[in-house]
Amino acid sequence: MKSQSVQTELFRLITVPVFAACFILASTFFYLQKSHIEDQFSNNKHLATELLNSVVFSNKASTNPFAEAANALLATGDYRSIVVSSATGQQIASYGLPLRTHSYQTQLGVESQWTHEDSLIYSFPLKKSNLQSSTPLWVIIAIDKRSWAISEYQGTITILLAGSLCLFLTFYFARRFRDALATPLQKIETGLRDFLKGNFEKSITIEPSSVFKDLASNINRLGALQKSANDELQLNIDQSTHELRETLETVEIQNIELDIARKSALQASRVKSEFLANTSHEIRTPLNGILGFSELLRKTELNNQQVDYLTTIEESAKGLLTIINDILDFSRLEIGTLTLEYKPVKIRQLIEDTLKLQTPAANEKNIRMLTIIDHDVPENLLGDPLRLKQVLSNLVSNAIKFTDVGYILLGVSKDQSSENQFTLKFRVTDSGIGLSQDQQERLFDPFTQLDSSESRLHGGTGLGLAIAKGLVDRMNGTIGVESTLGKGATFWFTSTLGRSPSASAKQTYLAGTLRGVHALVFDHSNMGRMEITHYLTGWGAKVCETGEMEDIEPQISFFSNSEPVDIAIIDSMIDIKTFDRLRICEHVTQLNHRFNIPVIILAPSSIQRILEPHLAGTNSLFINRPLFCNKLHQTICEQLEIVATENIESRTYLHQHEPLEQQQVNILAVDDNPANLKLVTELLKGLNINVTPVESGEQAIAQIKDSHFDLILMDIQMPSMDGIETTGHIRELETSGPRTPIIALTAHAVSEQKSRLLLAGMDDCLSKPVSESELRHVIERWTNVTIATKIAPTNPAPVASALIEHSPNADKTGENQPATDSQAAAIVDRALGLSLTNQNPSLAGDMLSMLIETLPDVLHKSRTQYENKQFDELQETVHKLHGGCCYCGVPRLKAISEQIDKNLQKNKYNNLANEIQLLEAEIKNLLQWAEEHDIDVLFSDD
User: Fold this and answer.
1) Checking CA distances to 256, which of 27, 274, 663, 759 falls within 20 to 30 Å?
2) CATH of 518-640 among 3.40.718.10, 3.40.50.2300, 1.10.287.180, 3.40.190.10
3) What is the pTM of this model?
4) Which residue ranges does the record assign to the Response regulatory domain (predicted)?
5) Are 20 and 207 in contact (CB under 8 A)?
């Protein structure tokens, strides 16, 4: 198409100008010819007029000059007729060819010209001077037009012939010119297109006489250069690819080596950590013995020197025990063996216990310990109180180490909350030496001490903050520090705790219990006044405060008329260094006798012992520093004789209905494993509880829509709809009604899934296998029902075949030898099976039989799913097998299935082939054992 357009354009450029020139020439020729004819006619007309008007007309034939002139004109060849006529059209004289009268009669009277047939006729009057008569005469002359028409035709034919010749020559030369230009260009275009496609083998060939010869030659040279460059580039690419492939192989080898080295290092580190943990644990035993016998030795009669020596021994042993405990905790965190508990946590009691341990060290440095706990922080939560206390103790102890004067403030606030959880933020702020930015970045690294001089002064291993960080991470929280060098530091961490069934969902802690009380607070420290005021205003009291002891009585006098002060809370220190016993006693006496106001004195134990004898008989009570929320509230109520009828945190339960009788408790048990479901059902029936068993999430939702349940036991991993999804649907149905506690049943470690399950809407977790005592505890916690404890029946002594292990050499009659300590774990452990079913032989036998019935199907599924790499389905199969093993005395199969389940959950497939072989072998051993033994006999009641 491009080639055709080029040819067309060339043809147009040549022919259009020629056509235009020919048209212009022909037009000019016709115009000039017409002009020539008109000029010739005009000249003939003028000649005839002048000639005829110059002679005199006479009718005499002998002497008539007019006739001679007319004949002379007719002799020229263009004149056909000359007629002399009167004005009325009467012909007087006629010369030449005759002219009919009707052809000119109507035209007389005015000089004019017209055409009649093949003649051009015009008329004019003769001059009077030429007439012999008095009558006016007109001359009519007819000129032949055919000679002029012939001239026009000849000119037209000539123009057409000349134009045709020109056009023919134009087309001929245009075609040659087009071929001379377009054909080489087309070849050049084709060649360039081949070059663009990378085909440089074929060059552009053009006639040597072509004007594009040099252009084609240069393009061929350019193609040759491009071909050479492409060849060189391809060579470089091939060489680079080869080198890159070798480099990648080298890097892959190095990565493999690094991975092997990393695994070796991790294994070595794990071994060292385990060794360190074991060693630390072993060292604690003799240390505890040293401390214990030191305490016993102190009770004997000792002289002063021995007491001094014994004190040094105890302090050294306690210091060494602290270091060992830190190393042990760090080792457990590093190897992942440290587990968290999940039990009730009283936040304010935990803060109080933490500060009590650290108060002696703070008092030695005259550091004031302060607490500010927000009132919306619930008192009763669920978590690990021991580890929370450990983190707080580490942070407070660290703050005491690096603070020489001032205060340490421990604050607790609610960071965020959900339906089942609270996230609390703990802050430990000190007025110590502070931290630089570089120190903050490496603060939580293990074995790091920021200042060697300080570490030598205060001691320590550098593990305290690292342990705190590890514990906070395990509690699904974060830890950090905010500090400016020389201006103190604030260590903070968050921890997610579960909502306790006895925690208030709406009201704040002790809110409104002191409404209407007006209290005066004296404390020389702004932070101390803020602490007391925070608690009082949160409880509903009105507070006036002062930082000067002299302003106590004036303040009370000022308010005595409008809003009398009900109680005064004063600090025993006038300023940071001054204690004045006489002034304190004087103010207390004035407040008691003059204003009849009870007084609460804030003082450490040493000052309390000094003041108590001098304030005997006054209306005053002491509270030791540090100040604790519950103690302060209790003391104020005691002084004002306010009776707290009920604890605001314990009066509201998660269920907004009256406590249920035991026979009224209805529980929904959900588990897809029939054996597990049967066991839980039997255990609940043994507790005299109404239980509804269902095998899927869909059935559970259907039951919830039709019936009310006080508690739901929910299996987590189920096909189609798992426990988490089922819980979500149940919570959606509870938009208007009461919230039903949902307890998760999981075969995994509770600590690993606790947060995820609580966030999903569950309220608590139980790890399989579930015992009767665990069920009783969780039911009592979440339903406020006390379940009567049954006296366990006396069971016969375990038979000799309590542990039965299959062996190829076993007697085929079914008689087995008892297992010894040197033997491996048993295939079937009868005692374990009985303990898991609460010593119910019939149930234990049923559970084992149900498990064995599923084993052939599990054996087939596990092999097929492994071979097809269906790891998700394989994990579900193994998990279900593990859940069934949890309630039967099959320790070896349970351990193998549990290990495979964990590895599949973590996507660890390296050793899966060996693990599947072990699983298949153990299943076959159990199936063979079942063929050789009578389960009903083994688990009979006899």
Assistant:
1) 274
2) 3.40.50.2300
3) 0.48
4) 666-783
5) no
